[in-house]
Amino acid sequence: MNHSKNHRMDIDTKSSNHSGFKGLFEKMLRRFMTITFMAALIPIYLLAILIIGISLTPGVYFFNYVHEATLSWSAPLSNLSLGLAIVVGYFMYGFSVIFVTPFFNFILPFRLKPFRGPYYSWESVPWYVHNALLYLVRYTFLEFITPTPFNILFYKMMGMKIGKGVQINTTNISDAALIELGDKVTIGGSAHIICHYAAKGYLVIAPVKIEKGATLGLKCTVMGDVRIGEKAVIGPHEVVLPKSRIPAHYRKNKPLKEAAKV
Fold it and tell me: Which residues cross the membrane (predicted)?
């Protein structure tokens, strides 16, 4: 983490410890929060437009091809063909965006790192952009490939460390680059893994590590700075709070000595 537990930052400060452009950006962000934040969104939206546009290109080509090929057909057949072309084009977009998005995430000049400090900080920029790209895919296509080897591949390309035989049956994942999953980990349907949280005016970004053979149950939540031991079982709807250390073979409502036999 960027700051020790004994060091208390002034979360309302208008100054910055950075120099150059980073320092200027941080000062502007803290003094003119709304205006600067809105201005900072513009390049993110432009990046999203570029990614979506590139990913849509194969589908547009296919639609135009079908449109030209069916011009002489009767209206019912032509309209049916165009409808199918739109659907096929959408899936072509989806299988394009899961590769195009990680490419742009990779070439960006900054990387998501653990951080603890005011929300309006330079260090929050990589966190914001990384998740914006992750959500772009989540909300436009990822549900269609969850769970399949394609969502595993996408998360790996976004920086998640994933072992062998892992199953991820959820799209509710944030901060993928700070998540590590051991071999044979199973993530249940609609489970949440979030490597950040807010507390007392601070933004805290911290990694999550889930060790070999562990299971996350249906709709459970795992928050930042958590480590889950080997073959532990997090039950459905269970919440693992920040800074938790779950021992190996853990299972709620079961004595640890008995759980160790699992």
Answer: 37-63, 83-108
Query: What integer pLDDT is reported at residue 8 of this predicted model?
Result: 61
Kind of pairing between the strands at 202-205 and 115-118 = antiparallel
- Residue 122 pLDDT: 86
Architecture of the CATH domain 34-259:
3 Solenoid (2.160)
Residue 16 pLDDT: 79
Question: For residue 7, with 0-12 CB atoms within 10 Å meaning exposed, 13-18 middle and 19 or more buried, which class applies?
Answer: exposed
The CA–CA distances, whole Å, from 146 to 131, 199, 218, 225 equal 18, 32, 14, 25
Structural domain boundaries of the chain?
34-259
Q: What is the pTM of this model?
A: 0.88
Whether the CB-CB separation of 209 and 229 falls below 8 Å is answered with no
Query: b/e for 146-155, b at 16 or more Cβ within 10 A?
Result: bbeebbbebb
Residue 234 has pLDDT above 50, yes or no: yes
C-alpha distance from residue 215 to each of 10, 184, 190, 241 (Å): 39, 9, 13, 16
pLDDT digits (tens, 9 = 90+) for 160-186: 999 999 999 999 999 999 999 999 999
Give the pLDDT band (50/70/90) at residue 29. confident
